[in-house]
Amino acid sequence: MTNQLKALILGKCVQAQILKVGEWDWVYFTGIPEKEIREAMITEGGYFNRKRLCWQFNNGHKSRHSKYPAEYIFKKYGVEEEISLAQ
Known about the structure:
- The chain is of the alpha+beta class.
- The protein contains three helices and five strands.
- The chain has one domain.
């Protein structure tokens, strides 16, 4: 996920949270993001994970689909909050 996309999300969204989970970026929204943001995320290789209800970017690190819950993945790979925007 590029800094340009992060700036777009911050500039357009009312509530969003970007987490760094291992080498991946996970983006949570409280609602449905604007079409412009969804299209930009898809263009940058992001996809919506229906199981975890967030947008995910693998940043070039391939992996298989995980059957584990988010909490397990957070514990295994570590998680740090990059950006939290709640207004």
